[in-house]
Design goal:
This protein is 37% helix and 15% strand. With 459 residues, the protein is an alpha/beta fold.
Length: 459
Amino acid sequence: MYVQLLAPRDGYACLTGSSANVSDQSESMMTKKNSAALLARAAAVIPGAVNSPVRAWKAVGGETLFIARGSGAMLVDADGNRFIDYVGSYGPAILGHAHPEIVAAVAEQAGHGFGYGAPTELEIEIAERIAAAIPMARKVRLVSSGTEAGMTAIRIARAATGRPRIIKFDGCYHGHSDGLLVRAGSGVMTLGVPDSAGVPEALAALTRVARFNSLAAVERYFLAEPREVAAVIVEPVAANMGVVPPATGFLKDLGDLAHRHGALFICDEVISGFRLRYGTAHEMFGADPDLVMLGKVIGGGLPIGAVAGRAELMDMLAPAGPVYQAGTLSGSPVAVRAGLETLKILARPGAYERLEAASARLGGGMAEALRSSGLKGCINRVGSLVTPFLGVEAVRDAEEARRADTALFARFFHAMLERGIYLPPSQFEAMFVSLAHRDADIDRTVTAARESLAHVARS
Ligand SMILES: *Cc1c(COP(=O)(O)O)cnc(C)c1O
């Protein structure tokens, strides 16, 4: 049904039309004149010319492209270049861009006003829908970003336990709030060191960092600082160091360990929630969190975030309880409507099966392309989250991810771009497959990957 709806749209027709000779184009053939002009204009008024750092292509070099529009699996830049998109707005675009049903719903909702500073029935509907899909999510608080969801979850955990510290994992991202912007230094027992200037050492010191897929450091922290740790927070499927799946039993054992020591277990499902299945990822791995964070997919492309969990914990939030949290635009009717309609489409039979089929086709094709190039590397894939790690045989944690050949990845990124494929501009991000990616798009991507990997292997 979805493919039928999108097939006649101009984006798809144009995409097919542009595919014939794209791989013949040499680097100088892609016009970047308008993007270059916009970049210069942006640099004068926007720090670093972008409103979120990874968009600046620092990790891969070259000048970022400005995007004019998206349709289905396709992006069009300011010079009219067309790309098959695997950034997907870093996760929200699970239906592809400008899905006609979402566009119509958002337009209708916008006609009723953008927000009232008063509750709406839509907020109940999305909370009920989330609660119905996630057994542990008895109550839901909406916020405007994943970052806020993380801040709120941590605040609840500290209030509930009366403890100050949190344990997170090296390479896991939970938004840019002070206490969560911390990773390990050289070893897993390293004390919290801020990743960013402006984060006071005193705040960073409340965060302990452990190695993903290992309980050893977590156990040591609990033994060294009993009754100090409020929560352990983890991405059940890590996707911000590139995609790294949890080892068998890791998430279940981690939750049990946290609970044994009186700490809460928080699963950050901002990426994985409603992306890997209709609901959360932690259930796939038998984990038992007290709180989950949501975002990205549940907003259908508009700004949103959510904390959900056990009723007695959620009822600690103001005005029911003593933990303050608020937001002018929380529960924005337009964002909530976009999210609701997205969830309804995802609930239709076969949605995740089709997403898995497209993602398996991509993962398998890229693995084959990697083998035939003779380059060392591996494809990590969990459902529609895919990362080609170059220069390493296996990636199970951040330390192994950091061994990847980022210079090689940068050349691969640009070779793919020349062939009309828009990858995330960093080795340490996931490629996001959407329901708008058709077999023809995937096959073109695999062909481009084969050519690009062969190209970078030669040079
Ligand atoms: C994107 C992301 C966040 C932060 O969400 P924002 O909406 O960008 O603030 C938090 N956690 C994870 C796992 C994410 O991928």
